[in-house]
Amino acid sequence: xxxxxxxxxxxxxxxxxxxxxxxxxxxxxxxxxxxxxxxxxxxxxxxxxxxxxxxxxxxxxxxxxxxxxxxxxxxxxxxxxxxxxxxxxxxxxxxxxxxxxxxxxxxxxxxxxxxxxxxxxxxxxxxxxxxxxxxxxxxxxxxxxxxxxxxxxxxxxxxxxxxxxxxxxxxxxxxxxxxxxxxxxxxxxxxxxxxxxxxxxxxxxxxxxxxxxxxxxxxxxxxxxxxxxxxxxxxxxxxxxxxxxxxxxxxxxxxxxxxxxxxxxxxxxxxxxxxxxxxxxxxxxxxxxxxxxxxxxxxxxxxxxxxxxxxxxxxxxxxxxxxxxxxxxxxxxxxxxxxxxxxxxxxxxxxxxxxxxxxxxxxxxxxxxxxxxxxxxxxxxxxxxxxxxxxxxxxxxxxxxxxxxxxxxxxxxxx
Length: 415
Fold this sequence. Notes:
38% helix, Rossmann fold, alpha/beta
């Protein structure tokens, strides 16, 4: 089977590799010329896809910027970003652009699957009408389905093959075509009754996490006032073998889904005069967590007689999660901006993010920098960092991730 993938980022590239490894001919499309050039030379720009995985696939995996190259594909999967606008409204510009370009080259019998996270109704109400501008009818002349991505960057215990795949088609035939497609690379494919059910299932997965993370983040703020160790409390609660699922607090949520999904669902709910206050509140709590962390740094410095203004602060980790270089919606960037607004000097270390162009910063060496900072803040817990060295080398350390729980030191503060 010849398969097209639109969008070769953290979702699209691993998907393209999986299909190519399964023996399919894959055409990957992206608007980033740098990505196309890298893939044509067998170089990966994503941690989960090593160069060694690309090398044997070069004959079956090609990259392009031309939609015309997708015309001969039997199935086309859309993996474009679906961010939020500045006012926290869904931004479907990338999806609309992709659908419009597809409508020009769409052929009878093709299957188009949307994987980008979005609100219920997007596939049927936004994607399908644009594709039908081709003059063909969805469900009869061509097929349309939604299948939410479930890739967790940096994770190795659950892969594309071992993670059950959800699909929902606009017709029974479309759903079956989607099932046939994903059975090439997934051990289990779960067919739902509609694209809307699949779209909402994806949102539920992430909103479940968002709500529970908001709960422990809020509890962490309360523990800060009560003088109780939040990590001890969570460790204690987690000893219960039933009825409790562990979630840890942190500096806030980042990435392409968790910070966004509650607002996508809230947007759709308001169209039906329903206001999901519980879900929206969780989103607000998590959005506010970086501000709490910046304020906690301010108080920590004040406790040793130093103003945040003019202090040199080292942020350890700026990607949104450990082991990856993805900085989308990263709370570390928000913390950095807030500290700069207080006239602090901010530097950072992150082996996965060599440069933060928007802040004019480059990653620094930890050992060389520690003696010259006033405070080091652990924001993203990359495994390579020696946190004992950090605690012993910096005059003041604040840990927002709980990775120093086995270390006792007078200069160490934990969230």
